[in-house]
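Journal club prep — side note

Before the paper discussion, L.F. wants everyone to see what a predicted structure for a comparable chain looks like in token form. Sequence:
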Amino acid sequence: APAKAKKTQPKGNHVELSSDGEVEEGSWEMEEEEEDGSSEEMVDDYGASSSEEEELLPIEKAALKQKPDREGLSEDDSDEEEEEEEEEAEEANKQKMGQKEEEGPDLQLNLDIDEQFKLPTTEEIEKEDILFISSVLDSLTVFPPAEPPDLHVIHQRIKGNLDVLQDFAVKREEGRTRQEYLALLRRDMAAYYSYSDFLLTKLMDIFPLPELINFLEANEVPRPVTIRTNTLKTRRRDLAQALINRGVNLDPLGKWSKTGLVIYDSSVPIGATPEYLAGHYMLQGASSLLPVMALAPQENERILDMCCAPGGKTSYIAQLMKNTGMILANDSNAERLRSVVGNLHRLGVTNAVVSNCDGRQFPKVLGGFDRVLLDAPCSGTGVISKDPAVKTNKDEKDILRCAHLQKELILSAIDSVNAASETGGYIVYCTCSIMVEENEWVVDYALKKRNVRLVPTGLDFGKEGFTRFKDRRFHPSLKSTRRFYPHTHNMDGFFIAKLKKFSNAIPQAQKEAAAPAAVPDTIVEPPPKKKKLEGSKPEKEQKLPQPALKKKHKLQAQRRPLKA
């Protein structure tokens, strides 16, 4: 082994690593012979190699490692290849040393990067473009990029651009406008994080620039796996102990939740344990617990979950109600209701009725509920870490289409609630989107169209909703709504608003809109009925109530001053 180690060791003293990343025994024995077992020299050799190999990339080291293993090659061929590889390694080292020499003065003198940052020329931008699309003779032609984009360069440019924009008056390049810097930043972020230009423009309107980078970075990392204990069948303490015994590493979700657990890692599939199959817990995102906590269902109430699939929130409502009262679990998609039925059976929910109706028609189907939960369908811009396709497949039409559907659903949800309920009269509206058009805009629309007001959600964390956005001004009470972001709360992006209905009457604006359709029916049909009734009744019975009414009016007039 020592002899082989001497052959395989390239120039310079260093420790050989095997393909598995483990230190080879032969190299250690060889070093002990040559260096008299000096531990200090071994540490130096292991920590810092010779100048030639100090800057080698792992892939270059691997290439050097593979040289002695090629036994089938002749000595002449192997010598030529060794010389070529050494020349390539030296060239790579020179390039890297040149880069370090360029960067060295900046680091040593502690110069600001912003002073060095300059906007790239149009030629440099064209080289980095992923695709060129031009129309030639009314036909589209696609050209490949001149050079593949260097993500490291783009990332450094994003940092420099952000620094300039934070102190634009001092650090900007002369003759350049803020719009040019923002356009470059948007283009670089779209290339680096793979977002569409439309979505990035929307996000830049919502977040300040430093926070936007944190949001984009958080979307590249999956959210923690969380489960909700089903208290209809077990306690969180008992469930945690049972899962720990199965090799699951977990912790309580947080002080705000009494049922949630966060799973760090597991030696068994967390969705196929005996406890899961027995209905002791439900795999559910942390943000999905919040709307039910805001709804705060009470025992023996009638509750509507208007868009219930896959049943996580419905089952949470049932366990808070301790299987009393009635829950109407509705969804317009019949296929998704299969998972709802399966989860409700598995979790032991017995107070739920499953229905397949369009939520917009719901007040006509059934109403008079104490509370309604509306988890509205949305664009999904809060769950990009789960569905990266949202980065590129959404446009303005998709957002407005979702917002229109949400406005219809929230009016139906409000109309389905009984304002005279002794314990309820509440509506919780939530989405897994962070777009203002799908959140504050929809709630503000509901405040204008129905007799409802916003009330505190009861959640002691989360960011306040917007009361103004660009040129729009919303009702001041929208401060009581809550926004949750992946980069601040480590959960999916979410919006929650809680409304209290104080009157079942529809405001005048709605009556005027419905009046033209309702007036002809009341005019055409009742007159013949009234004539028949008038003909059938004797004249004396019709005249008698008149003096009685006069006496009542006189008595009321006499009693009024006494009451005052």
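L.F.'s comment for the group: The chain is about 50% helix and 15% strand. Keep this in mind when we get to the figures.
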